[in-house]
Structure formats: structure tokens, C-alpha cells
Amino acid sequence: MSRLSLFLLASCCFILTACGRYQPAEGYPPADFAGPTPIQLSEEILLTLKNGQDATALVDQLAALEPQELAAALDSRNKKLAFWVNTYNGMVQYLLTRNPALFDDSSAFFSTPSYTVAGKKMSPNEMEHAIIRGGENRFGLGFIPQLFPNKFERTFKIRGGDSRVHFALNCGAADCPPVAVYQPATFDVQVEERIRKYLQKHSEIREEEGRKVLYTSPLFSWFRGDFRDHGGIDDFLVEYGVLTEDNKDMKREYKSYDWTLKTGIWAE
After folding, report:
1. What is the DSSP string of 137-185?
2. pTM higher than 0.70
3. pLDDT tens, residue by residue, 154-182
4. In angstroms, rounded to a whole number, what is the distance separating the alpha carbons of residues 158 and 162?
């Protein structure tokens, strides 16, 4: 390959890399920054909603962020996880407490861009599947990625996903996990506590026709491919105390999911 060809190839790679994602703003936050940071905003929105107050001013601040500032703030995996889980839950609670009728057509609610983060108007589906689940196709059960993510999604998605988030995201339905306010430093401890409590409430072993059957959350069925990061659903259930190594091959059935609108389900 000629030097010119190599130069052109290298230039194309550089351009694609530079333009493919938002680059973190240098020197953010500045020394005189008074806050709140994007992560603090995501926390304050939830706390304001929990207290029954209007979070519109905070929501507007989140919308006005520059994507380069957000990229600079979310410089670790746990920061991304805490921010996006809080923001998803804040989006859902904010929209549905202001206008519960949006949930009458839940398909439209989840697919309609209606909440802005760093200049990007997003739907609940986009935030959940393209960002939090790491760029998964929402119809692919966790086995099929999105083919053409946009620049915002490429910048902020949780690479590789994290199956634990299914027990942290609240979509406004009665059977959704309670809303906690997640912080990067304690995200792992917080989410694992939420998983154990949710599965304890939504799992039971029944005796049927002379054998035991586990009835548990349909979240495992809807997102079955996501649980490969824990070795599969069986190993996940063992890790969080629902089953043991001796009975993890037990037959599983999935309970019905209660889609009744119920906002304000806050973690204790």
C-alpha cells in the first residue's frame, strides 16, 4: 500500500473516530463551577419528584447541557449507570405524574421522544434500549444489537449492557421495581440490594404434580440474552439467592406482569 493510501486510510479512521462520538469537553467542570453536575441533576430530579414538588427547572437544566459536558462528567461506567438509570426513572415519573393519561396508550408513551437530555430529545424506549442496555434492539430479547446507532447513542451507551438494570428501571407500571436514587460510588451495593428484594417479592417455588416449579418475573423472559453477563438466567438466580447450585435446573414459569399505572413507587 502506498504512503498516500496509508495517509488517506489513517485520515478516514481519525475522522470517523472524532466524528463518531462526542468528545469530552476539556476542563469540565471549570474551577469556578457552582453545580449541580449532570449526576447531581439526575439525583435532584428524583428527590424533587419524591417530595411532590415541581422538577421542571431541573429538567430544563438537564436539557440545556452540552453533550460534550455530559461526556466529560460520565467518565466511568458506574457514573454512566447511575446517571442513566436515574434519568430514565426521572423521565418516567416526571411525565406520568404530570399527565397520567399518557399511559393510556403505553406503546405511544414508550416510543415517543418527550424528554430532553443534553440537547437530545429521547423516548423511554431509546433511553432504555439504545443507551442503558448498551445498544440492543428492543425486539431482539438481548441477542440482536441495533445496527445504526446515532452519535449520541454511540457516545453514551453502556457498553456490554448490565443485566442488573432491569431491577432498577421503573417504567410506571405496578410491577416495576421501586425507584431508588443511585450514586456512582454505591451503585453496585444499591442495585444488588434492589435485585434481592425484588426477586424475593416476585419469586416463589410451588409444588406441582410431584415436582417443584419456580415462578418468577417475566423480566427474565423479555431480556433473556442480557443475562449472559452473569452466565445466564440460572446463574443469576443462584447469585441472588432465589435458587441454589443443586436446584438451578428447576423448571421455570414466568408470572403475569401488572401493567396498571402506578407512579411514586419509591425504594425504602
Report:
1. -TTTTTS-B-SS--HHHHHH--TT--GGGGGT---SBTTSPPB----GG
2. yes
3. 999 999 999 999 999 999 999 999 999 99
4. 8
